[in-house]
Amino acid sequence: MNSAVHAVQVEKLHLFPCLTHGHTSALDQLSRAFAETQPAAVLISENKSNASYLIDHFVDDIDSEVAAARITKPSRDAVAGMRDVVQAFGLDTKDMSLAGLENTLTSFLSDQKQRCRRTIICFEEVQDKARWVLYRVRRLVELETKGDFGLMVILSGRPGLNELLVKPAFDLIRTHAGRRIVPGPFTLDETRAYISREVEAAGFADIGQVFEFDAVTLIHEVCSGIHDSIDTLCCDCIQLTDEVDARRISTNLVKKADKLLRRNLVARHSPAGVGSMRVNGARFPEGRLIARRNGEVVREQALNHGHILIGRGEQCDIAVDSPVVSRHHALVVDSLAGVGLVDLGSKNGTFVDGRRIERHVLQNGDLITVGDSTITYFAGDDRRG
């Protein structure tokens, strides 16, 4: 085993040493929202460090007279959370009730307005915080739309935040936040530069000592330029060098690592007790999935392999080339109990006949919607009702 290659695994990223194209696009959107006095903005990122890095740059570039508070940790309840917000502006919160804290914050915002100064409050990792955060943010946005404090609230989180915001109670936030801000993926050059910096941080002179040129290209394509996916796949490739005694990571090794990742993904999301397509010699009746985009049939997939992976990744059985589709978006599982559809924590959701689902037992004729594509399920003869 080339132990020097294996050492790269433990050298984790120095996060983002430079702004990528995706970062600058997201920063432009944040800056435009602030300049247009938008009361709220929603930043969605697959990675916590990515979002924090963006907010760092955004706040650093704002005029020094703008007061900015960042709430990065979860609070046990609304009182503790509002105390964190008020304290972040350097205000005294001793023995204050929730009403007192809210009045103090409102007075501060009014004073900022009197001084013709703007205010920013950033709530980070909102999907992990109690729902009180969104109720308080809704109130702040409501006050801003009526009183014009010059306030912008930034809600930052991972895709789970989308699921919270779709609730009717938060219509006001969605209306005034405009389009979600989602940092774009790496370009191929950025993927290569990113991996190169990792390799150099581990003490190598050149990326070519660890990765074959085409292997990096394949990693970028398989991961669709997504930072977390690149990290995971690179680490798995390096782990495999132990097994195959490779001196460098090749395209074949990348393919093997990606195949193992997919296999583990299927194992994690398959319903309990579901095995391969053949159980005790019995063969399941064949059903079919017909995928369409813009009304045109783009793929017909027989359910004769047990599991069908749907997503943006090129290795998916049904690949949907769309930026609103996750790399591993959904999984169809063929078992003795029926044909199940599982959403794999996708960013924008999986829908059956217009209803968002997490798990669903497919019925003949069900229409699955993934991004801007539709997939119709046709049951085999033995499963038609």
- The first-to-last residue Cα distance is 56 Å
**Biggest pleated-sheet summary:** 6 strands, antiparallel
Mean pLDDT: 81
Q: What is the N-to-C order of secondary-structure elements (H for helix, E for strand)?
A: HHEHEHHEHEHHHHHHEEEEEEEEEEEEE
User: Outline, from the CA principal axes?
Assistant: globular
Mind telling me the C-alpha Rg?
A: 24 Å
How does the helix and strand content classify structurally? Answer: alpha+beta
Q: Count of helices?
A: 12
Could you give the count of β-strands? 17
* Helical fraction: 25-40%
Strand order of the largest sheet: 8-7-17-16-13-14
Poorly predicted spans: 1-16, 271-285
Strand % is 15-25%
Structure notes:
This protein has 385 residues and is of the alpha+beta class. Helices cover 39% and strands 20% of the residues. The chain is built from twelve helices and 17 strands. The protein has a six-stranded antiparallel beta sheet with strand order 8-7-17-16-13-14, with no helix packed on it. A hairpin with a 2-residue loop joins β5 and β6. α2 packs across α3, α4 packs parallel to α5 and α11 crosses α12. The longest helix has 19 residues. The protein starts with a helix and ends in a 7-residue tail after the last strand. The N terminus is likely disordered.
Task: Using brief descriptors, characterize the structure shown.
alpha+beta; 12 helices; five-stranded mixed beta sheet; 385 residues; globular; 17 strands; disordered N terminus; 20% strand
Compile the SSE list and pairings.
Blueprint: H1 3-6, H2 21-35, E1 40-44, H3 48-61, E2 67-71, H4 78-88, H5 98-114, E3 119-123, H6 132-147, E4 151-157, H7 160-165, H8 171-177, H9 188-201, H10 213-223, H11 227-244, H12 251-269, E5 278-279, E6 282-283, E7 288-293, E8 296-302, E9 307-311, E10 318-319, E11 330-335, E12 338-343, E13 350-352, E14 355-357, E15 359-361, E16 367-370, E17 373-378
Parallel strand pairs: 1-4, 2-3, 3-4, 9-10
Antiparallel strand pairs: 5-6, 7-8, 7-17, 9-11, 11-12, 12-15, 13-14, 13-16, 16-17
Helix pairs in contact: 2-3, 4-5, 9-10, 10-12, 11-12
